[in-house]
Specification:
The protein has 174 residues and is α/β, with parallel strands linked by helices. The protein has three helices and ten strands, in the order αββββαββαββββ.
């Protein structure tokens, strides 16, 4: 009796793994076709087959001594110091599906005295999303900020590089 239950359990697991493999293969083909239809094939080299991508490219004016904060990013963060008062935020988020892209968004908040770039993840039912084939998203954050700012980077899963900032710099949880 125990052997029969074990065999059924193994058969269910094998069927689940096979289903995930077939599902991910199908998404790769569909994602490739959709990307070539929407972009004329020009972005095929930029993103892996079957992935979805979202970009943020914004400019802000910051006061001298403004506080710049980067929180909860899954990927590399690069902060470059520039002359002037303009800050540039460039974020590229890639994921295996549009659902995963929507579940891992980047929020950019700005005032003249502060700039915050933070990852917002709706990880509710994360284990079940993983079982259904939902994936993680990867962020690539590039900030160009004035030299005279205070910078805080925390909760980042990736390499962090910081240019010649003249204000205080705090980096934690990398």
């Amino acid at each position: 009796m125990k052997l029969k239950i074990f065999i059924v359990l193994v058969a269910v697991v094998v069927a689940w793994v096979a289903g995930r493999c077939v599902k991910s293969g199908g998404q790769s083909i569909v994602g490739s076709v959709e990307r070539s239809m929407h972009h004329g094939g020009e972005d095929d080299a930029a993103a892996p087959v079957g992935s979805s991508e979202r970009r943020i490219n914004e400019m802000f004016e910051l006061a001298e001594g403004a506080h710049v904060e980067v929180i909860g990013i899954n990927g590399p963060v690069s902060v470059e110091a520039v002359d002037g008062t303009n800050a540039e935020v460039r974020v590229t988020t890639t994921a295996g599906s549009a659902g995963a892209l929507d579940a891992h968004q980047i929020i950019v908040e700005h005032t003249p005295a502060s700039l915050t770039v933070r990852g917002k993840s709706s990880n509710g039912w994360g284990f079940w999303r993983w079982l259904r084939g939902g994936g993680e998203a990867r962020h690539n954050v590039v900030l160009k900020v004035p030299r005279r700012v205070e910078l805080t980077v925390r909760g980042t899963n990736g390499r962090v590089t910081v240019g010649e900032i003249e204000g205080s710099v705090q980096v934690a949880g990398i």
